[in-house]
Amino acid sequence: MNDIFLRYPGGLERAxxxxxxxxxxxxxxxxxxxxxxxxxxxxxxxxGFFTNEDVAGKYTYMKKSDVKELFKGTEHEAAIHxxxxxxxxxxxxxxxxxEIIKDRETLEDMFGKPVKGMAFxxxxxxxxxxxxxxxxxxxxxxxxxxxxxxxxxxxxxxxDDWYRLRTTCHHNSPELMSTARLFAExxxxxxxxxxxxxxxxxxxERNGNWNVMEELLKYLSGFDNxxxxxxxxxxxxxxxxxxxxxxxxxxxxxxxxxxxxxxxxKGKTKEIKPGETAFLNDE
Length: 283
Description:
The structure is a single chain. It is built from 8 helices and 15 strands. The chain is α/β, with parallel strands linked by helices. Strands 2, 3, 4, 8, 9 and 10 form a 6-stranded parallel sheet that branches. The protein is globular, with a radius of gyration of 20 Å. 33% of the residues are buried. The mean pLDDT is 94.
């Protein structure tokens, strides 16, 4: 079994995902940039900050109509970020649950589908082990599948804790492009790579550096071996991979999920279709 490794859809070895926080109107411009380069983003929204539809002239936060326009005809993901962006560790459990559920409910009513991803408002959660266990259980009880922090992974590995998601880097990192080159251009031995960038769209406007995202996406678009995915797409795919049922020798696998899963064994990549048992030692 130690020679079987996950591959992304199509047998790809690399995946890129973006996660951007808050409900600022600058999300619209950021989405336009992603759309031009056919990249996908998870937008973590505070629906309690949406501007009323009757407001005219300049405004800072998106209206519901803006949000719907942002996602119209795209494959971006809407995720929650706390209804009013509170510090979860300073709230009673009941209010934390309300912030999560109210945000979910508002976004689900808007889009007509489940919203089960999240980024922690105000960054990472406390390192206290007792609180970490408590908030994880609360998130699960509220139907959340994953929760992103602002902590750095310092590698390109897939997450080992979906309720403590770490990122590769912020877009303002001085090492952004060198990290991207390391991700895209160096050889992969066995383990697939994930390049995970996060930030806030208003930072580009405030710092006058929209070119940072333009440069990054222009560079990444030069490769045809990268899977561009939302946070939830990656979660769902890894979950499907983890559901594979192997024989004791690791020579065959049954896929009980509803999506094709790709694995590599001894340098050979194999697609395992839904409901299929695949023999992994085929020559």
